[in-house]
């Protein structure tokens, strides 16, 4: 059947190509030999051309279509035909620009014809509109908007030439025919002169970055299958991540990105010829003009640089409700067509998600000044958008309401609430809250997404905590659950100038809430999520939510755990574990998956909370232990039995890795053994995701005190990591390398805290792991950045006895050579600064310096020469400040003067030069690290000063004189910023100088010592 359909399509495409070729030749001849009598023939031929199906590739001769376009353009420019003929000619041009497939770009030889088409389209859109109520004229406007959209999709570079003009056209026609909105002539829009922060260049070197504490979870197989291909304006990057991908609020809902050749049209004959029929026909066409303009707007925003598009915000987003009617807000509030309101909201959604960086500058200010900063203008725009979106939340159409809530979610993510007027967040929560009780599941889900964005908003505001902690009130009764109107009865219609007062936490609601405290005493959002998940409350309904609602409710619980664990999660763990237990035992696989992820998030938050010793005293740990005991009784363990679904097993491993040391130590012995046994068995799983998750979880467990002291467990974990580090799949090796870094860190702790346990770890195992790390540095950057961390830790464990064995000295030299190479080469900055930090760890091991000793005197041999040279060079001038910070830290690692050898003076010179260069910033993104760099350099210089000896003074005199003033200034600033606990190296430097002063110094030595004391003592 499929082959038959394909054959028919190919045959139709071939026939259409031949017909197009014949008609093209005919129309060219008619235009060249045009007479009075062949006007009807021209119209007939144009109509035949328009009737072809341009969805299939029927244009085989680019030269021929170029001729057709040029002749039609000449005909239109001379304006000799009737309006009907002009419409047919424009429709033919629009058809010629139609994409045959999505995301197709035109060849360069078609750029000129496309430009000719767009010039004609723009000329008809920008000319004086003599009769806005003429049906043909409005069809011409619609056709031109569709044609421009086609041109931009195929030839985006053209947009930059005419961006202001195209936006001016959009601003006019997206409002055409809306009641009480005056028509304005299209005019070129000019960008605002704004101070826009630079976007990081895509061609810059990779910086790596701090590993996030919350892992990015995998996507289930069922989700991957139907996942929308997300564009670069994905709102899930940072902040709240919706669980329901089918409701991804970056989809192009409401926008026809590609115009098919034979579009389904409402025929003119569908309307009667009466006056009312003609009026309806005209309004229908005007609606299509507005929709075409809005769809064109979406395509323009999508194909324009974010920074460029943001300069036109003031032309479309009002500062207040008195800013006039010609803006995007009027479109989604006043357009009578639900599809048009959807299109307008989709444009707003795209504008918001592509402008987060710039909207972060916004702030509110009540001060009246002659000059209004642009940040305040932005704040007014954001406030007005909050007001406008609260108005459209009274929408009756469910699809439009859903889209409005998606916009609200994007606005929440983009708004810096800590810089805005107080109580704005409270109003947001109050406006969204009723939709949790809406009878449509899609509305409930988008309301949950919006509230998830509230929970993810940073920084956490006291008013947000206050609003979230309120108990469920009778507010939900204001939503007509069983009402056909779906929403509040007292709202029939809205105008952009209608007065609107935000809902607020007023006294009547407080009274209702105080009554509700007699019930479960659960905060309203948590309670709603638990009810959705099937937890029965004393006085609430016991109905479960639809599957998407359940998934989003679990995602809300995950978001709560991140920033509101103490306030929202901890007091209600017994109820939350009921919900999670039920979800994990549910037959719906996606629900199990999201429940597992929620357990992981709550586990991480619990472990972090319990690591605070002050909090540990305040709360009973029993409820936390019971949380895990309940899950380990059956539901969580059952996930490991799902042979057909590896993602569930991987998530189960993640959950066990998030238990944390405080809880693990309190679990019964059988549960501890169960956890460890399950993880070890999964390290031999056939699925890569499971294998990687298991070895990662074991590497977390090995840091727990009881397991760290269990030599058997440590050795088994080391073997599992070593085995998976050789896996064929990068994702597994990446997890294994991270695990090796964790394991090596645990071994360092054992070597200092539990020497007996460490002594049972054989030198062969240390050597084996060290060689594995060295080998891993030739792998992918993601593996390399973890392996260098492991090398630094393992080099700390090398003892004097180990160095007497033949393989060790050579391996140590290789390890240092690898670290030097990794910190001085490559484009991944995380690899570089990890390598510097690894050198710092290694250089703390005094045993490694003994190999450089000849007859009791240290000399610059073996690894020291390349290491000090590399660090000196990096700290002075490397463009990435985090690399320089770690290089400066490494230069302060040697514990005594002898370990520096002759490099002591070059290190002094390098650090002083680095301090002077700290003000030279090539990349402005590095500015935020400048203070940390200065602090670390000063602390490193303080450390060098504590090691100062009499013989060093004369050799440092010239270097010190060159940088004395600069050093004194920076030491003073650092002392002002740092708390005493962090500035001990500077205090120790003063003490060392005072001790040195007691020595028998000559006049020159005392003079130099005086210079040192001036620098340090005046600032201490």
UniProtKB/TrEMBL annotation:
Gene3D superfamilies: Leucine-rich Repeat Variant. Residues 209-227 have a biased composition (Basic residues). Residues 288-463 form the DUF4042 domain. InterPro entries: ARM-like, ARM-type_fold, DUF4042, HEAT6. Residues 200-237, 258-277 are annotated as: Disordered. This is HEAT repeat-containing protein 6. Transmembrane segments: none annotated.
């Amino acid at each position: 059947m499929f082959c038959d359909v394909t054959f028919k399509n190919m045959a139709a495409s071939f026939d259409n190509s031949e017909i197009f070729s014949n008609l093209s030749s005919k129309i060219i001849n008619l235009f060249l030999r045009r007479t009075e009598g062949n006007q009807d023939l021209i119209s007939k031929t144009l109509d035949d051309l328009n009737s072809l199906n341009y969805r299939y590739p029927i244009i085989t001769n680019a030269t021929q279509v170029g001729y057709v376009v040029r002749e039609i353009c000449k005909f239109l420019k001379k304006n000799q035909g009737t309006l009907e003929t002009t419409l047919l000619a424009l429709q033919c041009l629009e058809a010629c620009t139609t994409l045959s497939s999505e995301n197709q770009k035109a060849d360069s030889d078609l750029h000129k014809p496309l430009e000719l088409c767009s010039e004609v389209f723009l000329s008809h859109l920008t000319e004086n509109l003599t009769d806005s109520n003429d049906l043909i004229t409005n069809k011409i406007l619609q056709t031109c908007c569709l044609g421009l959209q086609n041109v931009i999709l195929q030839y985006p570079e053209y947009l930059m030439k005419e961006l202001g003009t195209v936006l001016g056209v959009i601003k006019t026609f997206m409002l055409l025919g809306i009641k009480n909105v005056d028509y304005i002539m299209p005019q070129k829009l000019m960008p605002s002169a704004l101070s826009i922060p630079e976007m990081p260049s895509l061609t810059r070197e990779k910086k790596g970055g701090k590993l996030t504490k919350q892992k990015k979870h995998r996507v289930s197989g069922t989700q991957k299958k139907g996942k929308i291909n997300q564009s670069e304006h994905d709102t899930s990057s940072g902040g709240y991540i919706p669980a329901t991908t089918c409701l991804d609020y970056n989809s192009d809902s409401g926008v026809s990105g590609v115009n098919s050749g034979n579009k389904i049209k409402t025929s003119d004959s569908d309307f009667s010829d009466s006056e009312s029929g003609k009026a309806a026909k005209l309004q229908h066409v005007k609606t299509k003009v507005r929709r075409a303009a809005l769809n064109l707007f979406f395509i323009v925003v999508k194909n324009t640089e974010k920074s460029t598009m943001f300069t036109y915000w003031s032309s479309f987003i009002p500062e207040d409700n008195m800013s006039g009617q010609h803006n995007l807000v009027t479109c989604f509030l006043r357009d009578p067509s639900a599809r048009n309101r959807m299109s307008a909201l989709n444009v707003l959604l795209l504008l918001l998600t592509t402008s987060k960086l710039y909207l972060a500058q916004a702030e509110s200010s009540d001060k009246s000044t002659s000059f209004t900063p642009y940040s305040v203008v932005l704040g007014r725009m954001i406030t007005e958008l909050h007001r406008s979106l609260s108005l459209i939340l009274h929408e009756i159409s469910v699809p439009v309401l859903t889209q409005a809530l998606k916009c609200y979610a994007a606005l929440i993510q983009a708004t810096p609430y800590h810089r805005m007027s107080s109580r704005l967040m409270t109003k947001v929560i109050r406006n969204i809250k009723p939709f949790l009780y809406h009878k449509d599941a899609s509305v409930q889900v988008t309301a949950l997404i919006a509230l998830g964005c509230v929970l993810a908003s940073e920084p956490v505001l006291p008013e947000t905590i206050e609003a979230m902690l309120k108990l469920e009130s009778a507010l939900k009764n204001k939503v007509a659950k069983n009402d056909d109107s779906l929403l509040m009865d007292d709202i029939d219609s809205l105008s952009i100038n209608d007065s609107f007062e935000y809902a607020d936490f007023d006294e009547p609601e407080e009274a209702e809430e105080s009554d509700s405290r007699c019930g479960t005493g659960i905060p309203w959002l948590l309670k709603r999520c638990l009810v959705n998940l099937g937890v029965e409350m004393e006085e609430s309904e016991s109905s479960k939510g639809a599957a998407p609602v359940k998934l989003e409710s679990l995602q809300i619980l995950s978001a709560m755990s991140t920033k509101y664990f103490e306030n929202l999660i901890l007091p209600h763990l017994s109820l939350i574990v009921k919900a999670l237990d039920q979800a994990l035992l549910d037959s719906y696989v996606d629900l199990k998956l999201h429940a597992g992820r929620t357990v992981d998030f709550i586990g991480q938050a619990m472990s972090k909370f319990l690591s605070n010793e002050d909090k540990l005293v305040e709360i009973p740990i029993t409820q936390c232990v019971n949380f895990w005991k309940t899950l380990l009784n059956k539901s969580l363990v059952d996930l490991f039995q799902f042979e057909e679904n590896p993602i569930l097993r991987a998530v189960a491993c993640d959950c066990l890795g998030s238990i944390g040391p405080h809880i693990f130590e309190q679990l019964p012995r059988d549960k501890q053994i169960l956890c460890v046994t399950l993880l070890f068995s999964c390290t031999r799983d056939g699925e890569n995701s499971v294998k990687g998750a298991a070895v990662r979880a074991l590497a977390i467990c090995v840091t727990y005190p009881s397991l760290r002291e269990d030599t058997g467990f440590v050795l088994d974990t080391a073997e599992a990591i070593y085995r998976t580090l050789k896996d064929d799949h990068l994702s597994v090796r990446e997890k294994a390398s991270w695990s090796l870094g964790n394991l090596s860190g645990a071994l360092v702790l054992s070597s200092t805290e539990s020497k007996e346990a460490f002594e049972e770890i054989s030198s062969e195992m240390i050597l084996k792991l060290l060689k594995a790390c060295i080998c891993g540095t030739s792998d992918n950057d993601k593996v390399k950045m973890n392996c260098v961390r492991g090398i630094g830790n393992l080099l700390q464990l090398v003892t004097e006895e180990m160095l007497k064995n033949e393989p060790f000295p050579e391996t140590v030299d290789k390890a240092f050579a690898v670290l030097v190479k990794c910190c001085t080469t490559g484009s991944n900055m995380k690899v570089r600064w990890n390598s510097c930090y690894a050198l710092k760890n290694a250089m703390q091991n005094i045993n490694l310096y003994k190999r450089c000793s000849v007859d009791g005197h240290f000399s610059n041999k073996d690894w020291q020469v390349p290491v000090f040279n590399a660090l000196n060079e990096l700290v002075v001038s490397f463009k990435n400040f985090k690399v320089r910070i770690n290089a400066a830290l490494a230069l302060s690692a040697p514990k005594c003067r002898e370990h520096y050898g002759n490099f002591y003076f070059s290190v002094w010179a390098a650090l002083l030069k680095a301090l002077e260069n700290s003000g030279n910033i090539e990349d402005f993104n590095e500015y935020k690290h400048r203070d940390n760099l200065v602090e670390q350099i000063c602390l490193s210089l303080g450390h060098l000063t504590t090691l100062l000896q009499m013989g060093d003074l004369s050799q440092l005199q010239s270097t010190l004189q060159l940088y004395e003033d600069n050093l004194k200034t920076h030491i003073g600033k650092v002392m002002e910023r740092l708390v005493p606990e962090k500035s001990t190296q500077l205090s120790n430097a003063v003490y060392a100088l005072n001790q040195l002063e007691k020595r028998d110094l000559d006049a020159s030595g005392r003079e130099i010592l005086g210079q040192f004391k001036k620098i340090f003592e005046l600032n201490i």
